[in-house]
Predict the structure.
Amino acid sequence: ARTVGGLADLLDHGHAGLLVKSADPAEFIVNLKRLADNDSLSNAIAVRARNLLMQQYSQTVMARRYVELCLLIVPSRMIKNGSTE
């Protein structure tokens, strides 16, 4: 993946992905070849990336985080009373 946006924070280089500078196509090709030539590395990264996805970004986790955020925003008295005002 390219080191743009939050990807560098999300993916630990070599753990759940391989990161390259966004303006360096040669580095991208080197890392792509590295994955293509090393099945155990590509499989290990794939497993770790899926685990990261399931632990941090699954529907269940994201729904829980959304509810927690809503509970922070909406005053508890409104929830208890069923009020929308």
